[in-house]
Predict the structure.
Amino acid sequence: MNEPGQFSRSKSPRFVFIFIILTTLAFTFSPAARTACFPGKPAERDPNFTPSHLSSESRPSLVVDYHGKFSATDKSGGKLSPDDQGGIREEVPAKYMARYQQWKKEFLSTPTARQQWAIYQTNPNFTLTIVVSRDNPEGGTTSNYRWNDAGHLVAATITLGYRLDAGFPNPVYFPVMNSLLPTETTRKIEGETLAATKMAHEFGHVNRTANGDSALYQLQGQLMPEYNQIFLSNGRNPSDPRLIELARKMGGTPVEIWEDREYWGETNAMLYLRDRFAEDGFRCLLFNRIKRSVDLYAPSYEERFLNIAQSVPSGRHCAW
């Protein structure tokens, strides 16, 4: 499990800068360009682009591009249903079972993944449902969180696209998964490894939510759409007193909240890659790619990635 970390709040100018960058890159990393090469520097804003709105639940467009449209019913209170009596429940159509078993085998080839799987598999008070679906074919998402009356997470659903072994998410929010993008000078990563890395990212979301503040998480879900509506109707002015008050209650702006969540998911994916590639040269190559993206798009979150880079079991750390 990831250790809880301090959520670093950004200033308003940085929020505006990030919004402009994400608007510009919305097309660059759309599904049609999902396998585009890693950019060497932030794209300059093209005046011909129409500004893209945040989605209805306030997710940045580049997050939606990978995770898909939000359709969860996160809620608190109540008891587990008779079908939710703990452990891991796999809902995989027969036609996708063989590929899913390959992804799962690859995921469980690492000690960290096996440990996390065992924690959920043997927990009688938590039900993790894993679904393979045609929706959002190359992406994954974690949803349907449920908490009991004591505020403890008791259920969650991970939905994996049926082509999870294809497609590389953008480097803005997904620097670890994007590091697997093949180039002419590096070996090709097998599809099963890409799928397993995506699974690790989704497990990271569950890990973080299970160990986080349930009341704050649910409050953020309630207030982010309100923030988004005001932001899009006030000329995109983050200095609006109403937005400042909402951000205070939520612990950050919607962009800050989503980037914080995604980078926690990515640290878990990085743990998987750390364990998966024992060869120092290739592991360090991937870590260097991750560092480039983090330096470019997420410098204030560098520490959580650095901690993973320095936790190599062999003790042979990659330069960071």
Observations:
- The chain has eleven helices and five strands.
